[in-house]
Amino acid sequence: MDLEGLSDIAVAVLDALSTRRSIGRLKPDCPDRHLIERVIQAATFAPNHRHTQPWRFLVLAGDARSHGGEVLARSLVRRLADPETPSSVEALRTERAKFLRAPVIVVVAVEPSTEPNVTLDEEIASGAAGVQNLLLAAHALGLAAVWRTGDSVRDEVVPTEFGFAKSSVIIGYVYLGYLDPGHTVKPRPSRLPSEITTRWEGWT
After folding, report:
1. Strand partners, 176
2. Cys-Cys crosslink for 168: which of 16, 121, 159, 203, Cβ 3.0 to 4.6 Å?
3. Which position has the higher pLDDT, 99 or 3?
4. For 142-155, how does the pLDDT look when each residue is reduced to its tens digit (9 = 90+)?
5. Structure pTM?
6. Residue 97 · residue 73 · CB < 8 Å
7. pLDDT tier at 3 (50, 70, 90 boundaries)?
8. What residues have CB less than 8 Å from 81, skipping those under 6 apart?
9. Which CATH number describes the domain made up of 22-62+100-182?
10. How far apart are CA 13 and CA 26, in angstroms?
11. What's the order of all strands across the beta sheet hosting 144-148?
12. CA torsion 169→170→171→176, rounded to 10°?
């Protein structure tokens, strides 16, 4: 990306966009709470039609991550034909341990507004934009992060098990922490060229 001649703030923003990576290999060290508060605040600056501010966050650390893993495991039990088979038992063990892969887990949900003319797809879009803000803020503050989803986000029981309103929709789990120094960050996969993704009309 050519940054020559741009202002410092433009360079910083565009550099953050182009260098942010999804990183799942994290050190066990827990970041200071004030850093996490700043990335959460950044999420709330996302664009939001009708200013409903639908985003909701649950921030897990320490033993609370294991409790969150139990929510994931119960969701998996509801999807298994037989939770007692050896393969199911192993899958449940893996599910319970998922949130232990990072020192901080941010469960992100959208609580749709009940105001007239507010649509769920717009609320989810605002929530997703909030997650992108969160990821960029984490990157800017020296944190590593990855946004994960999975079948549990489509389980209608899971929002209330995480303490959100029944009408809420889980849009993902953000794993936060510091990059494991033993982990090599892979280069960003190539992006489709603009000739494929973009049409220009009315330009001369």
Report:
1. 104, 145
2. 159
3. 99
4. 999 999 999 999 99
5. 0.95
6. no
7. confident
8. none
9. 3.40.109.10
10. 24
11. 55-61, 104-110, 169-177, 144-148
12. 150
Residue from 63, 80, 65, 76 nearest 158 by CA: 76
Q: Please name which of 141, 122, 119 lies closest in space to residue 41, comparing C-alpha atoms.
A: 141
Tokens, residue 130:
């909030």
Cβ atoms of 23 and 118 closer than 8 Å? no
SS3 of residue 60 by DSSP: strand
Distance CA 162, CA 157 (A): 9
Q: How many helices (H) and strands (E) does the chain have?
A: 7, 4
Strand extents, DSSP E, 43-129? 55-61, 104-110
Rounded to the nearest 5 percent, the helix, strand and coil shares of the chain are 45, 15, 40
User: From start to end of the chain, where are the E strands?
Assistant: 55-61, 104-110, 144-148, 169-177
Closest CA to 139 of 30, 45, 35: 35
